[in-house]
Amino acid sequence: MPENVSNADQLIRHNWQVEEVTALYDLPFADLMYRAQTVHRENFDPNSVQVSTLLSIKTGGCAEDCGYCPQSVHHESAVKAEPLMKLDKVLESASQAKESGASRFCMGAAWRNLKDRDLERIVDMVSGVKELGLETCVTLGMLEEHQAKRLKEAGLDYYNHNLDTSPEFYGDIISTRTYQDRLDTLSYVRDADIHVCSGGIVGMGESRNDRAGLLINLANMPSHPESVPINLLVQVEGTPMAEMDDLDPLDFVRTIAVARLMMPKSYVRLSAGRESMSDELQAMCFLAGANSIFYGEKLLTTDNPDTDHDQQLFNRLGITTLAGQHTSPAKEACSH
User: Fold this and answer.
1) Is 334 part of the annotated catalytic residue set?
2) Opening angle at CA 62, ends 61 and 64, nearest 5
3) 227, burial (CB in 10 Å: exposed 0-12, middle 13-18, buried 19+)
4) Are 37 and 262 in contact (CB under 8 A)?
């Protein structure tokens, strides 16, 4: 592979093949990092990070059987089902998130799919958070076309719906929802002109080819997700994946770098798993092209580094956080 990144490498592509992506994974580590950092600098300020806060607005009791998730009714975990939060409590949390430096407020509900009876309550939350001057994001499970349109009318900026892994490995993780179900929801979101937030989880026992397959399915969408969360499995007691072996940290960094090369204009987010990451590992992820994190002590039900620790790390690295309402990624310039 050439040392210098050519103009062709910077083009937005939607026709990645598995052999190409595994070849990126197989590059010497220094070469991969160099290429990823070069592409990152051509599309983003390398010393700025977008910060989001995630709130669980409806916890536990989910009918899905995702093997990693403590909110599933199928697993013996400690997460108890709770009702949908009241609007004033959500807005109070959003205000606190803004004061702590978040530019985007994400609301997650442990549902298989959004039901119409709950739609207007979610709409009120989206509108209220938007009025606070924050970007809005929700993750509510599967959507129908009319629901996506209604959320857009309410001012929703992002909808999160992860692919989780490759199509080939997906059946080992989840049996209650198909890969196509996920793709259909993302299609409705895209058609409603809502920004797509979609990524996956690594460390679930998948192969390198499966990691490549996840990124291929994201990058080969009609348009790249504007936000790509890369989660490191959190091994939660009571879930089928509680005893999984830890992923080699350098394999995680490689996944960040390959995601940056394949989706050069997307925000790549360090999501779940940061609590177990050293400061040095996170710094390496930023060098590999990650430029977004979740801020706050909880990610739905799992621990996350506190905001003071994150700010100290940013100060040590000379990183600034992006201000709200200015974090929408650049539109794709060309496609193949």
Assistant:
1) no
2) 145
3) buried
4) no
Ordered alpha helix ranges (H), 132-278: 145-153, 167-170, 179-191, 208-219, 249-262
Whether 92 contacts 102, CB under 8 Å: no
Length of the chain: 336
Q: Which of 13, 211, 260, 269 is catalytic?
A: 269
Which is catalytic among the residues 13, 35, 62, 150?
62
In a 3-state reduction of DSSP, which class is residue 48?
Answer: strand
137 is catalytic: yes
Active-site annotation holds for 106 = yes
Catalytic residue among 13, 35, 66, 254: 66
Of 186, 132, 179, 171, the closest CA to residue 155 belongs to 132
Active site residue 66: yes
Q: Is 269 a catalytic residue?
A: yes
Measured CA distances, 250 to 8, 110, 197, 253, 254 (Å): 27, 31, 24, 5, 6
Per-residue pLDDT of the chain (336 residues; tens, 9 = 90+): 334 444 444 579 999 999 999 999 999 999 999 999 999 999 999 999 988 888 989 887 677 777 677 777 666 665 677 788 999 999 999 998 888 888 889 999 888 889 999 999 999 999 999 999 999 999 999 999 999 999 999 999 999 999 999 999 999 988 888 999 999 999 999 999 999 999 999 999 999 999 999 999 999 999 999 999 999 998 777 787 777 788 999 999 999 999 999 999 999 999 888 888 889 999 999 999 999 987 755 444 445 555 678 888 889 999 998 754 334 444 443 332
- In sequence order, which residues have a C-beta less than 8 Å from that of residue 261 and are 6 or more positions away? 9, 24, 35, 36, 39, 289
CB 286 within 8 A of CB 49: yes
Q: Give pTM, 2 decimals.
A: 0.86
C-alpha span between 40 and 288 (Å, rounded): 8
Catalytic residue flag (residue 316): no
Catalytic option among 13, 104, 106, 150: 106
Task: Select which of 13, 35, 104, 137 is catalytic.
Answer: 137
